[in-house]
Amino acid sequence: MGIVGSELHRNYHVPGSALSAVLSGYFDSIGVYRQASSGQTAAAMAWLERVGLGDKARTSFRDLSFADQRLVLIARALIKLPRLLILDEPTQGLDDLNRKAVLDFIEAIAGENISTILYVSHREDEFRGFFSRHIRMG
Hints:
The protein is mostly helical. The protein has five helices and three strands; from the N terminus they run βααααβαβ. It has a three-stranded parallel beta sheet with strand order 1-2-3.
């Protein structure tokens, strides 16, 4: 299971690069405390490329924009190709342009059937055609 939410984003304060943040998904940790294999590093780089941040792999996670941090955390959640991807308000705090970029990436992932996606949002305008079910609470 891969999870991305505002709490993870808020608590991801360890020093390290965007690459190490994605790699931490292999170890289910905040930060990397073991040596990653060359295969793991290559896969993490591939995910950074997929989210458009391959050129920022060595940039400190803390120095990335808020939107780029969120994309890195989504890549982190996908690194082990989880059967279930839980996205809890993944666009919270993003402007319209970055919100669209995140939604477009999620739509691309949904089209590949990598994971079942549980997407939680308070915004009805985020409902996209790739969602097979829509549950309205209230």
